[in-house]
Amino acid sequence: MSHLRTALELVAAGVPPLPLRVGKVPFGNCRACAKNACGGRPNMKTAGPCHCPGVCHAWAAATTDPNVINSPLWVAAWRQAAAVAYHPGGAGLTVVDLDSAEAIAWARACLPATRIVRTTRGEHWLYQGVMQSANAVRPGVDVKSSMQYARWLGPGTGTMTALPDIVRALTVKEPATVRPAVVTVPARAGGGECPHRTPTYLDRGIAMAEQRITEARGAVHATVYRTFLAVLSTHGRCGCLTETHTARLFTAAQAKGESPRHCTDAWTNALTTLGL
To answer: How high is the pLDDT of residue 43?
Structure first.
């Protein structure tokens, strides 16, 4: 019953766990809850109001109630479980799931340091804060927070930090209506050294952004916009971006078929979204 002990330890820490079957999938709904017959959680936006005592509704089954965790139905599920998962959003957390060496390299170059949990294929980067979950926000990267579950693989190492804007920007879609471009120089240029870490941090971030645009296989305009948004969310307020940096990004976008006007519109929309 090691899974049950792990679950109770998570509950004591305020983290809502749930059991997973083989294949890292939740237990299926019981007959009373099948096809939302119970009338609760039809869109799974909340953890209620269904009061089924079983391990139902995937991520919404996660709970911090030890009486539920120790109930007969749940104990039976823990005996069959292949792993323990948890609801990051229910614990006030966001998990950036990195499933490849390339994704890890991107995170190390572009994301602020935080607590890291090693996984079978990569790493989980844990941040304090809740946001919308989304899969495949970039190659090898998923964001797991609200209405999602993540496998529990231990507490990890490092100091957990606040959820940064650059992670929130990964799930933001470009506005359907494009405002007319009114900027003559599409950058918030101030020159000087990036205060986040070192000038190398900025240079690596720009290089990763160029690579992301260059490697886009589809939805190029959306990729360009989200890349601009990510760069500005990190460096748009500190005055470290120069015209040389933005020219590199625009050049990469135009090499993928974007027009200068499309580049300027995407940059302007990103500035507007971030309130810059």
So the answer is: 45
